[in-house]
Amino acid sequence: MIETVVGTMILFMAISAIIALETKDLLSSIISVGAIGVATSICFLLVGAPDIAITQMVVEVLSLIILIRATIRRDLTTINGDREFFGLTVTIALIFLFFLFGFKAFLTLPEFGTPAMSQFIEAPSTKYISSGFKETGASNIVTAIILDYRGFDTLGEVTVLFTAIWGALAIMRVYSRKKRKNKNSHE
Amino acid sequence: MNREKKTGMSLIVQTVTRWLKGFIFMFGIYLAFYGHLTPGGGFSGGVVIATTFVLLTLAFGRERSLSKLGKVLASVLDCSGALLFLLIATLGILFGGAFFVNFLEKWFPSVNFRLFSAGTIPLSNISIAIKVGASLFMVFIILAVRRVVEVGGRRKLISTEFFETSEKRKDK
Is B30 domain-assigned? Predict the structure, then answer.
């Protein structure tokens, strides 16, 4: 069941990617890219990684907004007249709906003080807590997890910082290297 | 010479900075070295180390801190810290069979609660601290040194005194 849904999602992502590449309109291209992101998020949710799905969704929405603002020069059109009442009604209805969903979700949460992940015996966090000190020899369990069990995450964080700084350095350069060489040869 | 005296903050801030900079630096090193035993670690230790240089920049001006940790040295430390962390992770493939295997702990099971224990974890902490300290100082320098300068009636974004090209330009 899950395999077929994920398969159709991947097919949908491939089609959206082709549309994003081939279309002439910039706005529809950006919206196709956003569709890929939403499909990725749904895939993550289906294969059992809700935290990554949330991150993917948030990053996708933010980058979509930035891309649309960067490509479309026009300002947002203001809603006037009759549509004001409609917009207000829809907003209130949506807020009520989200509140209802949130209330339902809070009812399913475990009791305070019992982590959600500790309810499953095979959960990795149970193993980290019970045998982390024995296996790694580090008495600080946070360090044992981020540098031993979850070393990949730390490597990703370091890479993000590294890339961000070198990108900023490359952008903030006053002259490009080629121009500088030409300038020196002039002197 | 006259301009050099003007840079930085008041005498009180400069004196306090002169006393405290070593202790702050030592605290950053302690956080990084003892990350596997006490709260702390490579990231927080690196941030504290970077804070020392930020404080130096704020109190004495950028010439003082850039003479201690220049652009070239910061770049070298940044790259070498990241590569060292990657090297420790890759050595896990060579000796342990998988990426990020704590091979030192497997070979020499250490006495717990000692400074030299937990295998590769303190080494990774130190390399991360070097990397984060150098790169966060570079972030501060990039953000603090950027200026909007009017050149020939046009406003231009220029990084003054951090890059050699702009200095050469001023001499002209």
Answer: yes
